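Exercise 7. Given the components listed, write out the predicted structure of the assembled complex. Treat all entries as one system.
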Amino acid sequence: MTPPQTTSSQTTSSQTASSETKVPAPRPWYVSALVAALAVLLLLGGVWAYTRLRSPFPYYGTLYDTPQPAASVTGLSVTNSGMVGSVVTPTTAALGAGKTTALFFGFTRCPDVCPATLAYLERVRQAMTPAEQAKFQVLFVSLDPDRDTPQKIASYLNYFGKAQGVQVREPALAALARSYGVSYVKAPLPGGGYQINHTSATFLIDGAGRRRLLWDVTQLGNTARVLNDVREVMAGS
Amino acid sequence: MTPNLSPTLLDLLAPRPDALWLIGILALSGWYALGFVHAPRREWPIWRAVLFGLAVVVALVITQTAVTDFTLNSMTLYMIRLMVLAELVPPLAILGLPAAYFAQERLVPHGRPAQALSWLLDPWVALALWAAIIVFWNIPASFSASLVSNTASGLLPLLYVFGGLLSWAVVLRPLPSVQGKGYGNRGWFGLLSALPMMSVGAVWLYSPRVLYAPYVGALCLWNTTPLQNQVNSGYVMMIAGLPGMALAIGQLMLWLIALADSGTVTEVEEPDA
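Answer.
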């Protein structure tokens, strides 16, 4: 076999390249370690600066890049909740119109996420001043309209303070959930019946009717930080 | 009933342009194509262009399709996307660069940029940055949950590409003029840099409850539970770390062999040209 021929020009260029490729001298390990620590500080500082650039206020919830218009919630609701002889009326919940809304999708037979969410939101509401409470509402939309009648929703919500509940029938419910990116599906239970598996986010809608951020149920337990988010959104709308 | 929770491959690959990623990928591809066309084939072989092209195609698939949207309902898909960006695109792109040709044509950085790159590609620095990216964004409870949740969709994929490029650049050494050449350093680096990922992967694999807040109550794709998704994410992370780890072990072997030979093999000096 003949070895590949190398032309003189190639030899010269590769020799030049190799002679120019100087390998840098190794650094003392402690210098490298110090620079590594600085680089991590720079990285995390840069990330912090990026988030502050997106929003000067350190929101606890996950912020929408641009505020999204919140789809209106139209359905049946009990208007005189807690009173004898409740009246069910068609309702379009007032999203925007100067009120800040915490909107949550759930169902009354939910064993964990829904009661926890509503309890946390009530805790936030109670931590507000009366003036703030007047400009804030908690809105609950049932994802189980077959079983959650307006009366049942109203009596369920009575356990959790002053939330407003709405029953939205299919297919309007599917369209509404889709517009918020909420998923839900019926899951059969072993002993019969079913439960609803669903997205556990709570959406904060500002006084101008725009979705500003969302919290996961795991975040809602931090009342102080959730309240700060609400106050900031209230002040800005 | 609600958003499609059983997407097919076609659903996942439906186009969904992301302008910033697209501009970046096309700009890099254009720069590469120009260099490739003008360079002699012997110096810039086709196999390198094929690897770089693969990196570009994979990056386009992972950033310009509906996969991004579906990651909201699948931690596994979310992790696959990040791992592809960190562990597949960077090595393909780096292997696609003709390092010797760049050095010969003086296309490698000189002066201050070379110094900066030399620091960035220092194994200590690269390891610390990569570990910070992996640990900070995967154990948010210990740090700042809001910082993590507000950067997870926009900034984090970019950080994974950055971290992956750093890690693989240290291991594959595409810039000999600014990087040390010892196999030992690179091998140790490769082994250590795989540890944070493997550790997080193991935690997800064996945790009895869902740890990653955004997926605690999420409805997951393909009728899986959040916990199943977390376990699968652990597998994805571990499998994604294996090639880098295998390469690191290989480099450590070479280093050990060289170390063992150092006192026993007589080097034959080549005559000066």
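Discussion: The longest helix of chain B spans residues 226-261. Chain B has one domain: 9-259.
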